[in-house]
Amino acid sequence: MIQSLQDTTTLHNGVKMPWVGLGVFKVEEGPELINAVKTAIKHGYRSIDTAAIYKNEEGVGQGIREGIKEASISREDLFVTSKVWNSDQGYESTLAAFETSLNKLGLDYLDLYLIHWAVEGKYKETWKALERIYKAGKVRAIGVSNFQIHHLQDLMQDAEIKPMVNQVEYHPRLTQKELQAFCKEQEIQLEAWSPLMQGQLLDNPTLQKIADKYDKSIAQVILRWDLQNGVVTIPKSTKEHRIIENANIFDFELTKEDMEKINSLHDNHRVGPDPDNVDF
């Protein structure tokens, strides 16, 4: 059983990745961002997820440097993720984009680097670049984001290294069961972005009822559901009380019945783009 923020899942290459992290999507550069990262580290988070397109890697880097100093931990205690954006995909341009991300973050290496979306005709070249970065020891694990089963099958036909992670939109209204089963079979760790459906689930009556039963918030119930489903989760928040609340999910366990009730909310509803229609 997962018992704390420091608990990890082991990726297929042996690297350990925390089950829970802080997401920083849509958090702009500035003091709020730096504080969010520092606050998360202070309260025991060991995983931080950003991306080139968020345009906040510099602030994340600063938050990491200040956070590890204040918490008296080392860089090695953290798991830092970034992603190559669509317009940078391709072999040479991905190599350059990775260096740019490292420089902005002010880090010597990344723990995980992902292809942000499956850009048709480009993601295989991009993956070759990720394999090269990985072999050079500049990143501890490589993976993809928003890849459907057919994207993964296509990628793996020519890949030397299998993706270690697939980060996708995942929440009670989009349970991605077939994709999860495929990833499990292939030893690819599924990770949830937008686990709280950008806040749209926080007034759901079914979830409220379950939350009341455990004396927890809806957010805590959803994040607990992620973990019990074997899915890594990275809720985004900049407010200290929420960052603490989102981490307070290790002292209760959802029953099988409640898990099924949450699963039954699935209606294939996305808040993000359709991965099969990437035109951005």
Automatic annotation (TrEMBL):
It comes from the Bacteria. Substrate binds at residue 116. GO terms for molecular function: oxidoreductase activity. The active site is at 54 (proton donor). CDD domains: AKR_AKR5G1-3. The keyword Oxidoreductase applies. It holds the Pfam family Aldo_ket_red. Belongs to the aldo/keto reductase family. This is Glyoxal reductase. It comes from Aneurinibacillus danicus. The lineage of its organism: Bacteria, Bacillati, Bacillota, Bacilli, Bacillales.
